[in-house]
């Protein structure tokens, strides 16, 4: 039996992976990879229509549903929107997820890509 193959798709916000990487992640799943989705921010500034807690809950549910459709495991946002900084606290949180799932492949957005 071979080594477990794991793919991790990382997006800044809920729905980023779904818009940019879902096809590739689904193909990896069909090729036998265990697939995971991680969002860095939780979507707390996603709308002015709902309270912060409501939009976080709504966007998490949407991300959970999308991950289920792709047969992936969803790892929820690590910090609130507007709290995404390159600092030791966020690096530790992201590193903990990576160490937990030990991906062979990581899909990430381009440094210069903003939709």
Overview of the structural elements:
The protein has 115 residues and is of the alpha/beta class. The protein has a single domain, classed as 3-Layer(aba) Sandwich (Rossmann fold). It has 4 helices and 4 strands; from the N terminus they run βααβαβαβ. The chain has a 4-stranded parallel beta sheet, with helices on both faces. It is globular, with a radius of gyration of 14 Å.
Helicity range: 40-55%
The number of E-state strands comes to 4
Q: What would the average pLDDT be, to the nearest integer?
A: 94
In the CATH scheme, the class would be Alpha Beta
Number of domains: 1
- State the fourth-level CATH superfamily: LmbE-like
Q: From the helix content, strand content and strand pairing, which structural class follows?
A: alpha/beta
What is the gyration radius calculated from CA atoms?
14 Å
Strand content: 15-25%
User: What gross morphology would you assign?
Assistant: globular
Fold-level CATH name? Rossmann fold
Give a short account of the largest sheet. 4 strands, parallel
DSSP summary: helix tally = 4
Question: Descriptors for this entry?
Answer:
115 residues; alpha/beta; Rossmann fold; four-stranded parallel sheet; 4 helices; LmbE family protein
